[in-house]
Amino acid sequence: MLKQGLYISLFLITLISFISCENDIAVVNSITGEAEKRLPDQSNKNAEFLYSDSAIVRAKLTTPQLDHYAGKKPYFELPKGMNVIFYTIEKKEETKLTANYGIGYDNGNGLEKMEAKGDVIVINVKGEKLNTEHLTWNAITKKIYTDDFVKITTKDQVIWGDGMEADQDFSDYQIKNVKGEIYTKDSVDTDKKSK
After folding, report:
1. Which fold would CATH assign to domain 42-194?
2. How many helices (DSSP H) and strands (DSSP E) are in the chain?
């Protein structure tokens, strides 16, 4: 009788162990699925990426880390910042861009647009400098734009406001909502001398 009670007890403990160890497959799949979504399918250190248009290199991007994510809408992330140099058709440096973070989106036919975030600085061939925290480059329209605060420094003035649109080489730009403008001493002295 004691043996039979011992067998029943062991059977019940074993049964409870198997039941308590059972995992809901939907929960397991959701956890592993989320983890897979966050992991890149490729990761490169000290990467260089060339963007060409009609077989002419128009931009070179360098970054300490480039993570590529596949899926329905593939994209790549530059979590450690980036440097981009835009070139003229004659292969001369035209514009430089730096940022603390970047993300680029592929439309299936190549790079569609790219966003730069965190201490974004753009300097054009004339030495004009743009500072902002978020900037988008549309590879199709060849425009850069933002709705965030911008500061543009030229040799004659400093202009700041909210929102801006420019050609990708930052040669022709327009601030959407100008908040202020300061003329430098050199530009004021030049105006006085010409009068």
Report:
1. lipopolysaccharide transport protein A fold (2.60.450)
2. 3, 11
Contact 128, 108 (CB under 8 A): no
What residue ranges do the domains of the chain occupy? 1-39, 42-194
pLDDT value for 131:
97
Angstrom distance (rounded) from CA 169 to CA 59: 10
Mind spelling out the 3-state secondary structure of 164-194? EEEECCCCCEEEEEEEEEEECHHHHHHHHHH
Predicted local confidence at residue 89, as pLDDT: 84
H/E element holding 78?
Answer: strand 75-78
Q: What is the pLDDT of residues 152-182, one digit of tens each?
A: 999 999 999 999 999 988 989 999 999 989 9
Q: What is the pTM of this model?
A: 0.73
The owner of tokens 């490729």 is 42
Q: How many CB atoms lie within 10 A of CB 13?
A: 10
Q: CB of 58 within 8 A of CB of 49?
A: no
Which residues does residue 59 pair with via DSSP β-bridges, in sequence order? 51, 86
Q: Which residue has the tokens 């480039």?
A: 66
Nearest of 184, 134, 123 to residue 158 by alpha carbon: 184
